[in-house]
Specification:
279 residues; alpha/beta; 60s Ribosomal Protein L30, Chain: A; Alpha/beta knot; 2 domains; seven-stranded parallel β-sheet; 12 strands
Length: 279
């Protein structure tokens, strides 16, 4: 149990890294990431795979967090709201930040693909809100591996973490490496890879039943969609039928519908009713 340390000045060296909260390149160079908000910091502290260096909190946030702070070995820095805002460079209205160590980046290999049962593959998804939303849906529907293809955003960027409600900390992810060869690695590990597209020639998703227990959903960036090589590397293409003038959905919404569909029609032993709701 760490004893809270009072921070009363902007230039206190113990909170120097918090002055770079808005500088992702600085944090990345030091193998750090930042988490903001009480609920997500609480989740970070509960996940054993992450090493939390420190937590910067107001008294109100500390009182709200309670037991998770009492149990952590991370340094706890207590400060006033106004000073926290100055240190971070913006209004931390939830009064809570944490710094944690990044893990060495992993690339998809056959061993990782063999261990997984449900996968979500992203190509060119760079928007942090979409990254966060996709991870949140991935966790909700039992995905145990997210594969980040070319030009994908950082799941440990603070906005992506916040949007995901901490799911980017809970769902394992890897970089794809060679692309689209990584899709072939998943197929070789018995995944049925389903590419989402609004193309009229694709199968309606409601007509697809999983061929086996392992399914991977492949989605691309909004606007451009999936590249032709990625599409060609998948087992089949699926579309979500639309009415009206709109021919596609936000990538997070589309992926969520697909993940829900395959969670209900699982051919493997992991089939379960998805959890509804959440914080």
């Amino acid at each position: 149990m760490a004893v809270p340390v009072r921070i009363d000045t902007l230039d206190d060296p113990r909170v120097a890294e918090y002055r770079h909260v808005t500088n992702p390149a600085h944090l990345l160079a030091r193998s750090l990431f930042v988490v903001e908000g009480r609920l997500v910091v609480e989740r970070l502290l509960a996940l054993p795979q992450w090493q939390t260096h420190s937590v910067l909190v107001t008294q109100a946030a500390s009182d709200n967090l309670g037991a998770p702070l009492d149990r952590t070995d991370a340094a706890i820095y207590l400060t006033e709201q106004s000073l926290m805002n100055q240190i971070a460079g913006f209004n931390i209205h939830r009064g809570c930040l944490a710094l944690a160590a990044r893990q060495p980046e992993r690339t998809l290999d056959h061993a990782g693909a063999d261990r997984a049962q449900r996968a979500l593959i992203l190509e060119g998804v760079s928007n942090p809100d979409n990254i966060g939303g996709l991870f949140r849906s991935a966790e909700a529907f039992g995905v145990d591996l997210v594969v980040l293809g070319p030009e994908c955003g950082d799941p440990l960027y603070r906005k992506a973490i916040r949007t995901s409600m901490g799911s980017t900390l809970a769902v394992p992810f890897v970089r794809a490496g060679d692309w689209p060869a990584a899709i072939g690695v998943l197929r070789a590990s018995r995944f049925q890879v389903v590419a989402l597209t609004p193309a009229a020639s694709a199968l309606p998703i409601s007509s697809i039943t999983p061929a086996g227990p392992k399914v991977a959903i492949l989605v691309g960036a909004e606007g451009a969609g999936l590249s032709a090589p990625a599409m060609a590397a998948a087992d089949l293409r699926a579309r979500i039928p639309m009415s009206g003038a709109i021919d596609s959905l936000n990538v997070t919404t589309a992926a969520s519908i697909a993940l829900y569909h395959f969670s209900l029609h699982s051919a493997g032993p992991r089939a379960r009713q998805p959890r509804v709701g959440g914080r």
